[in-house]
Design a protein that fits this description.
The protein is α/β, with parallel strands linked by helices. It has one domain: Rossmann fold. It contains 10 helices and 7 strands. The chain has a 7-stranded mixed beta sheet, sandwiched between helices. α2 runs parallel beside α10. It is globular, with a radius of gyration of 17 Å. It starts with a helix and ends in a 5-residue tail after the last strand.
C-alpha cells in the first residue's frame, strides 16, 4: 500500500460506514466472547493505520503489529505507543505472551496464511482467544483484490479447516455484512471493468452523510442479529477461536 492509500485510510476509517459498522461487530464479539480482564494482554496483528487498535483500547492495553513502517507511523499519529514491526509469518513476539489476538482483514494479505496462523497460536497463552475477519468467497475475487494485494478470499469451511489445523478450537463462526451483500458484490465486479485504473479499483465510494449514516444503521441491525444467530452469507467471514487450555 502506498502513502496515498495510507493517508486516505487514516482520514476516513473512524467515520466511513464500512469501518464503523465493522468496529461495532468486532466490539460485540470482543465483549461477548473474549471478555478482556485487567492484566490481560491483547495484540492487533496487521494494525494498518491503527483505527481498530485505538477502538479496542477501550478493553485494555493492546499492542499494534504491522510489517509496514509507514503504517506504524500513522499508528503513532493516533497516539498509539506499543508498536512492533513484524510480518505475521514470523512474528517477532515471545511465545505464550497474549490473552487475545485480533487478525482483522489481514490473513488474505499473507502468502502463507497457514504459517501465520501457527505463529498466532504460538504467541497466545493457553486459553487465549483469536478473532478473525476476512473477505468471503473466492468467486468474488476480482481485480479489486489484486490491487489491494489479496492472495485469496475465504469460505467459512475453508477458514475453519485452516484454523483447526493450526491447533485452535473454533468457538463461533459466521458470515457478516449480509444486508449489503448483493450491492457490494455488484460493485466489486463493476470496478473490475476498470482494471487499468487503480484509483477506481481502490477508491472509497464517496457518499452523502445521510447515506453513510443509513449504511451504518443497517450494519448496526446486522450486529444485533449476530448476537443471536449465525448469518448464512455475507461479503466477510468472522471467526472466533481458542488455543486449548493446558490439561
Amino acid at each position: 500500500m502506498d502513502h496515498q492509500e495510507f493517508e486516505r485510510n487514516y482520514r476516513i476509517e473512524t467515520k466511513y460506514w464500512w469501518n464503523v459498522g465493522r468496529f461495532h461487530i468486532i466490539e460485540t464479539f470482543t465483549k461477548r466472547y473474549i471478555r478482556p480482564k485487567e492484566g490481560h494482554r491483547m495484540v492487533d496483528l496487521g494494525s494498518g493505520t491503527g483505527a481498530t487498535t485505538l477502538w479496542l483500547q477501550k478493553f485494555g492495553p493492546i499492542k499494534a503489529v504491522d510489517e509496514s513502517p509507514l503504517a506504524l507511523s500513522y499508528c503513532r499519529r493516533r497516539g498509539l505507543k506499543d508498536l512492533t514491526r513484524s510480518d505475521l509469518e514470523r512474528i517477532k513476539l515471545p511465545s505464550g505472551s497474549f490473552n487475545a489476538a485480533f487478525a482483522l482483514d489481514i490473513l488474505e494479505h499473507i502468502r502463507d496464511d497457514r504459517k501465520a496462523l501457527r505463529e498466532i497460536h504460538r504467541i497466545l497463552k493457553p486459553g487465549g482467544k483469536l478473532l478473525i475477519t476476512a473477505p468471503a468467497y473466492q468467486w468474488l475475487f476480482s481485480e479489486h483484490d489484486e490491487v489491494c494485494h489479496h492472495y485469496r478470499r475465504y469460505t467459512l469451511s475453508g477458514m475453519t479447516t485452516k484454523v483447526e489445523q493450526a491447533g485452535f478450537k473454533v468457538l463461533r463462526k459466521s458470515y457478516c455484512i449480509m444486508f449489503l451483500f448483493f450491492p457490494l458484490a455488484a460493485l466489486l465486479h463493476f470496478r473490475s471493468l476498470f482494471k487499468r485504473d487503480k484509483k477506481i479499483m481502490t477508491s472509497v465510494v464517496p457518499l452523502p452523510s445521510w447515506l453513510n449514516l443509513l449504511l451504518i444503521g443497517l450494519l448496526y441491525l446486522e450486529n444485533l442479529l449476530l448476537r443471536f444467530l449465525d448469518l448464512p452469507f455475507g461479503v466477510s467471514v468472522i471467526l472466533l477461536a481458542e488455543k486449548p487450555p493446558k490439561k
